[in-house]
Amino acid sequence: LCPPGVLPLCCRRPAWDRAARPPPSPLQPPGLPLAPCRSFSNNKIQVELDESSGVAMMKFKSPPVNSLSLEFLTEFSISLEKLENNRACRGVIITSAVPKIFSSGLDITEMCGKSVEHYTEFWRAVQEMWLRLYGSNMVTVAAVNGSSPAGGCLISLSCDYRIMAENPKFSIGLNEAQLGIVAPFWFKDTFVNVVGHRIAERSLQLGSLHPAPEAHKLGLVDELVPEEKLMEKAAAVMAQWLALPDHARQLTKSMMRKAVLDRLVAHREEDIQNFVTFISKESIQKSLRMYMEMLKKRKS
Ligand code: CO8
Question: Atom 26, ligand 1: which residue's CA is nearest?
Fold first, then answer.
């Protein structure tokens, strides 16, 4: 059973258990190898844990655009779970190994022309990813080094802190409305918790993708830095957050996020049903096909 105040999905390693660990050693300067280092690499995500600082680096490496396929989402959730269960890990920096793209969001091909069973499995994996990330006990910092639409934006929004490369060609936002689909309530809740109701409402209705400087003005990202300074800044922010005792920070995080997490946990099956019914509609399938065609045309 989870103790009171501890996030629902992360009770494998309770807050008080982690608080007893020694304070973090400062992060090494950028460019130097982190040691001692444990790494595990799957097909689509590479993870390196620096046990001396307690910080893991998670890099998306699924070209061309780090789209969130079922396989990607499964790897992501498993990687997060491994880190969460590792007593040596206290924080994770999430970034991309694919130039110019953080993540293109949910893999649209997973939502087109597939069976009800597939949609069910896929949506459960999307939920699982968000529950683990938003409910993580670890400090989570997104180093957004490329475009980050829809599901990519959700990943950033679910972190504790977002730093973006200050390239105006990189954009971020929940653009679902542009695809003729609707961001689920927990995408919306996560967005509202970061930028507030008014900005979220306008941005969601218009399906806006905000260039990095605008995203910063709206509070969608916390900081902009030159691309070459991004990892250095992420490491500095992480060190700042890890300077606090884990238990106080974790309980505070839980207090801020628990209601939103609980809402999905309580309505998980209903949410899957809604998704499957919605995505199976011929009109929605047509919108998604047209959007994919538009992407291909834009390319040629
Ligand atoms: N899914 C699948 N394939 C994709 C996706 C994606 N999300 N994004 C891009 N691709 C494909 C392209 O079709 C293209 O394929 P191909 O090489 O076969 O032609 C390839 O990836 C490369 O794409 P681009 O040439 O467009 O690459 P660029 O570097 O020029 O641009 C971008 C990269 C900016 C990421 C651009 O591809 C883009 O804007 N993609 C669309 C992003 C998007 O709108 N994602 C929304 C996904 S929906 C979602 O995440 C939440 C859904 C919530 C569910 C609601 C329930 C009802």
Answer: 295
DSSP result, the chain: -PPTTS-TT-TTS-HHHHHTSPPPPPPPPTTSPPSSEEEEE-SSEEEEEETTTTEEEEEE--TTT--B-HHHHHHHHHHHHHHHT-TT--EEEEEESSTEES---B-GGGGSS--HHHHHHHHHHHHHHHHHHHT-SSEEEEEE-EEEETHHHHHHHHSSEEEEE--TT-EEE--GGGGT----HHHHHHHHHHH-HHHHHHHHHHT--EEHHHHHHHTSSSEEE-GGGHHHHHHHHHHHHHTS-HHHHHHHHHHHHHHHHHHHHHTHHHHHHHHHHHHHSHHHHHHHHHHHHHHHHHH-
74 Cα to the center of ligand 1, angstroms: 19
Indicate the top mutation candidate among 181, 277, 295 to test ligand 1's pocket, ranked by most ligand atoms within 8 A of CB.
295
Tell me the per-residue pLDDT of 237-260, one tens digit each, with 9 for 90 and over. 999 999 999 999 999 999 999 999
Q: Which CATH class is domain 37-227+247-299?
A: alpha beta
| Ligand 1 geometric centre to CA of 149 (Å) | 8
pLDDT, tens only, 43-62:
999 999 999 999 999 999 99
* Residue boundaries of the structural domains of the chain: 37-227+247-299
